[in-house]
Please model this.
Amino acid sequence: MTFDFDQVFDRHGTGSTKWSRYPTDVLPMWVADMDFAAPPMIIQALQKRLEHPLLGYSVAKDDLREAIVADLWNKYAWRVEPQELIFLPGVESGFNMALKALVQPAQNVVVQVPNYPPLRHAPGHWGLNKVELNFDPQPDGTYTTPLATLNASLQGGGALLLSNPHNPLGKAFARDELQAIADICLANEAWIISDEIHAELCFDGRQHLPMATLSPQIAQRTITLMSASKAYNIAGLKTSFMIIQDRHLRERVNHARCGMVDSVNPLGMEATRIAYREAAPWLAALKDYLQGNRDYLVDAVRSRLPGITMNVPQSTYLAWLDCSALGLDNPQQFFLEQAKVGLSPGLDFGDDCQQFVRLNFGCPRSMLEEGIARMERSLRHRNG
Model:
């Protein structure tokens, strides 16, 4: 079966968040959804579901839980029981529920920066102490966790808000680094709240490693957040799930939804079921296409966008562009006004990230080329 990721769709007028923010002459390459058609098997399943004309409040059926359990085993050799899944209308509600339920006012919540805004700002919603922990950049363009600082920041317990694979760096954490992070959390009796929404989108043969699979002891202190929304491009259907394997912890976190987090919509749950049951061929083709887009972008940044550098994303469809050498006050504003390309501003991800922008390369190759060409022209005119 072949899938066409080169087809361009006009999303203006559809209510798309991505395509509604800016005027129509701006190419939006910011928020993390992709400009590809959703998998055809999901579209067909939703059409079939809509033949039944009722769309009332819904619960997760056994076949949805079984599809996720089977997928977790097939992808990660992770044995999860159906009752260990809690369904949510988004991972953002999940990490907020966990913080509300588990962290005491005197404890710290550690967030590695740069990090995506909802995760970064979550501790503030509950009046909790946030510690922003900068990654250590390495000579090879990768980033590592400063373990000693992490350990010092988690004295007295609290929680680590982990993004793995990481947004916006595209970092896929390796086993030894994850193990070291987990050991520090266990030693300090800190909780691990692990947002793994990009788990399926690792490149170059890498395999995502869920934090909770490292050991039963780590699983007891880990809340894992996952969804089909990123990999299968169904973000607007607002369906995610938490995996909490310790029963008492699960009950404690789930209780925090009361009055705050609603149930999940039936179309999102059906799309999720089909994604994990039937869409593996589509996902494999998508990953190949995205890796090609990544390589195309990396080459273009090196050869056509002087003054911009980037690390090579190991996962996700997000590129973290360093514009420091351009000497601009506000790179995001420059490219918006001069190139008509809408990027995510670095300051959203960290207080020291003014010179960065995040670019979403989850789009048809022609659209990616158009964005690169616009940025290239804007730099040429500036230097001319």
Remarks:
- The chain has a mean pLDDT of 97.
- The longest helix spans residues 280-304.
